[in-house]
Amino acid sequence: MLTRRSAFKAAAGMAAVSAVGIGPARADQVVKVGINLSFTGADATSASRIANGAILAFEEADKYHEVPGITFDLEKYDDGSATAGQYDPAQAATNARKMVSDRAVIAALGPQMSGAGKAMAPILSAGDLATITPSSTNPDITDPKFAAQYRPAGKPIYFRTVATDAYQGPNMANYMAETLKVKSVYVLDDSGAYGVGLADAFQKQAEKIGIKVLGRDRLDPKAADYAAVLTKIKSLDPQALYYGGVGQAGVKLAKQAYEILPNVIKAGGDGMQSADLLAGAGFPAVEGWYATIAAPHVTDDPKVADFSRRYVERFKIQPDDYTITCYTAARVIIEAVKDLEANKKPVTRDAVRDAIQGVTIQNSLLGPIAFDENGDLKNKIISVFQIKKDPAKPLDSPADQYKYVGVAPMA
Amino acid sequence: MTVTDLFLQQAINGLSLGAMYALLALGFTLVYGILELINFSHFNVFMVGSFIALWVLQQFGVSGQDTILYGLPLVGVLVTAFAVTMLATGVIGVGIERFMLRRLRNVKGPAAMITTIGVSYILFNLVLLTVGADSKNFPNPLPSVQFAIGGAVLRLREVLIWIIATLLMLALTFFVQRTKMGRAMRATAQDAEAARMMGVEVDRVIMMAFFLGSALAGAGGLIFGLYYNFTSFIIGFNSGLRAFTAAVLGGIGNVPGAMLGGVLIGLIEAIGGQLIGSAWADVIIFAILVLVLVFRPAGLLGRLAPNKS
What we know:
The structure holds two protein chains of two kinds.
Chain A: H1 2-20, E1 29-37, H2 44-63, E2 70-78, H3 89-101, E3 105-109, H4 114-126, E4 131-133, H5 147-150, E5 158-160, H6 165-178, E6 184-189, H7 193-208, E7 212-218, H8 227-236, E8 240-244, H9 247-260, E9 265-268, H10 275-280, E10 290-293, H11 302-315, H12 321-342, H13 349-358, E11 361-364, E12 367-369, E13 383-387, H14 398-401, E14 402-407
Parallel strand pairs in A: 1-2, 1-3, 3-4, 4-5, 6-7, 6-8, 8-9, 9-10
Antiparallel strand pairs in A: 10-13, 11-12, 13-14
Helix pairs in contact in A: 2-12, 3-4, 6-7, 12-13
Chain B: H1 3-35, H2 41-59, H3 71-101, H4 111-131, E1 136-137, E2 146-149, E3 152-155, H5 156-178, H6 180-190, H7 192-197, H8 202-228, E4 230-231, H9 235-250, H10 255-275, H11 281-295
Antiparallel strand pairs in B: 1-4, 2-3
């Protein structure tokens, strides 16, 4: 659809130019941007909300001819597979190869999930194709320690408009200790790259600041029954449960923990901040869960009101925070291409990569955006939310059911 | 919680899991006993069953976690839901046999088995494409009654699942042991050729095996939904694989063996998870399977497969 629409726009633009007779008719240069998210499986709803952010950014850039002579074409890639039921690293690697082999693709957005990111990063590095992830938070991918693994070609190609789990997990541990006065915790993960990394980072900080970690176990996201592990946790009687992972195991965990561990404080990372969780587990099971996001909370910010209005007009649903990180990521690509055009440089992959590295947006919806030498945001903020039922609003709308409770203290 | 309470609780958890695996394992065993065919479409007939059950409950206006029923309305809704779901999945099973497997019956080699894998994926993707990929909230009409046994908790839904599963298994045993059709099934399982010569309508017997197995899978799907309060297009593989393992563990083709295997796998999963860690549950289950098969290749209760003469 997007392709057709952009093609139509390009054609319309050409017609307009020749009608007023300015020089020879010349079609805009169409630059392709790949967006790789998990459109199939447990995180599908979040994926489409994230993608909407990018769709809006590029549609507006095209509509207002923001970069003269350039039309953007957003091409969707789905790394979710039916057999995995969620993101599938093998599919993500295939998608990365497809993007790299399509010479028209000059930059990418995504992936949504860190497990996909780990599979894609080396391929993108070899292809010199920069990607900006709106939501994948595993720190290893941009950590210079693992440069040989994730950016073998040398230059950083994995940029983020979110902070990483190196902050998300530890900051939540601080929040638990300082605000929730938690003394003992049990830690679970969902055996994915994101979940394990997040739970590890949380656990390390919790131990460091004196929260007693009573145990650590791993959930199989495809299994249906977590009663055995939850019963074990119940017997240890922790004050809190921390879960590093995404929705597929999270939905079942929330349901069963509600029954087996009714009085335990439950918290997760941004994987537990989703419409899929609200719809799949539902109230009362999800009530009281804490979740973080690796970005400042801005959807209540007056500056964002105008964006929200345009977004709701276009998609008929409310944006959430990762819609905005994706919109911002798309804006970074637009700014990078604009820089190249202004300096009369060709819009090639390596030029776009270098331009992204240098982009600074002072007043983005997320505040100032600039990247460090590894592709991480210079400005790192973790926001904490708690689910509190608001019966007057749609029960599966994260914007309405997650209440912002503050910024988690830096580790 | 004391150690005893803890093990009691894990035994309760394990028995509930086991009841569901046993219902599913019966479907594998019934078909294997008669056709020597491993029917992989069974995985997703179970999954489709949970969606049919979801639809039936919604027709009664039972949805979300807030509609709780008591007394006669509860019994009525449950009986209807079980009847409709089992009939529907039974018909799906018969359809799979009649339109896809019957023509392959005398084809040598893995053609029929591969076909069942294909059917499994078709069902899987049909559900994925029609209802979407996210987990669906499954209604919970059962009142939340709990019994405390020391520090362990026994919930009404667990008791109910044990009762329903036991009733269904008793009914199946009675059917296979005491009715004319059951006798015909046993005869066909022993020697299809001889049974045919004695006037047994083998086609009908095979259809019946598919109907019963699939109906039990449908019941399993409804129980799954009531127990976990969610369903998703992906639930078939994990439960199906364990149920299949249960059937092999008990002795494939052997009806009591499938029940025993199911309950054992459920208990191993719960108690193994307690002792070693849930992440190791699959390793424990399949290691025990391998050990049992090394020492008793025909499974715990022996294999009742056709005697091919």
